């Protein structure tokens, strides 16, 4: 049987041309597809490069932010300059104020330090910072809770005065019908702060009743008294819940003692020790003990060893005075005492033999240095550190102002 072979059909000239066009188009499409692939690959490469650069930029920015925060927490003014120089912050007053108000990673003590300075820029930032707070429809205690949590009040009376004046002005602006004047708000704010201390400080044994709080604030509303129910609400709020004071991570004892005003070995006259064998009749004698002293933050701390993490005793220097004294047993002595309350125990605490913190029993503290020069240097440093409690003077001055306007 013969097999049939089909010869390929010859294309006409028109069909051959069409086939060539198809092949050419196919080639063009393949080339275009490859170009698209190359372009897509290039775009992805650029995206990867951009993301890498962005990640690097963000990492650099985060690094600069971290450096800036550390600088601010150590020296606030230098920290702000660093933020501005690295374009992390503009020099605009409102921008700086909002940055401090948000406070991300910032030490609240450092914020208070910056806001308390008298430089014109700092004063403007303080005003803008206070304006960041919204006090509308808050009672005074609620507003103070918000305000005092946003930074830590410094210790100097003039700084406290400026800050509380700005607070009182802002509160009255947000709540125009609550008080007759900003002076009323100012005085009552301090009364509340002092009430908070009196009610919740374990060292204050005489807790003020509501009647005393009312008496403290008589006549402060442009010569008239504030409604008792208003004062009762404020009193009860503080009594049930004390102010939350910012405690920064950097404010532990290690940070407190990192940069003291002065430190060194001194001899401290301690408590009475009973002698059973000498003299033969028995007796009691005070002993001198060598202690490592650190002066910082208006307090005098003393340790048994320089390596101790916790002090053996703490002597707050508020309302105390220091003077040279002669002692028959030791030369180059100085004495800490309360000039207005001679014979009363000084507010202090120490660790007893069982490790418990107990109240100090000294009416004065006598300390001996190694030389007259060292004693005089300690006296000078202590005098520079001693401050009186500023609140009472500030309130007294403002009450006199209110009275003079009647």
Describe the protein's architecture and organization.
By secondary structure, the chain is of the alpha+beta class. It is about 50% helix and about 15% strand. The protein has 2 domains: about 90-240, Arf Nucleotide-binding Site Opener, domain 2 (Orthogonal Bundle), CATH 1.10.1000.11; about 250-385, PH-domain like, CATH 2.30.29.30. The chain has helices at about 15-75, 75-85, 95-100, 110-115, 120-130, 140-150, 155-175, 180-200, 210-215, 230-240, 255, 370-385, 390-405, and strands at about 260-275, 285-295, 300-305, 315, 320-325, 335, 350, 355-360, 365-370. Helix 1 runs antiparallel to helix 2 (about 75-85) and helix 8 runs antiparallel to helix 13. The longest helix has about 60 residues, at about 15-75. It is elongated, with a radius of gyration of 37 Å. Mean pLDDT is about 85; it is low at about 250-255 and about 270-285.
Q: Topology, please?
A:
Layout: H1 13-74, H2 76-85, H3 93-102, H4 108-116, H5 120-131, H6 140-149, H7 157-174, H8 182-200, H9 210-216, H10 228-240, H11 253-256, E1 262-275, E2 283-296, E3 299-303, E4 313-316, E5 321-325, E6 333-337, E7 349-351, E8 357-359, E9 364-368, H12 372-385, H13 390-404
Antiparallel strand pairs: 1-2, 1-9, 2-3, 3-4, 4-7, 5-6, 6-9, 7-8
Helix pairs in contact: 1-2, 3-5, 5-7, 7-8, 8-10, 8-13
Subcellular location: Cell membrane
Keywords: Cell membrane, Coiled coil, Guanine-nucleotide releasing factor, Lipid-binding, Membrane
GO cellular component, one term: plasma membrane
In short:
The protein is of the alpha+beta class.
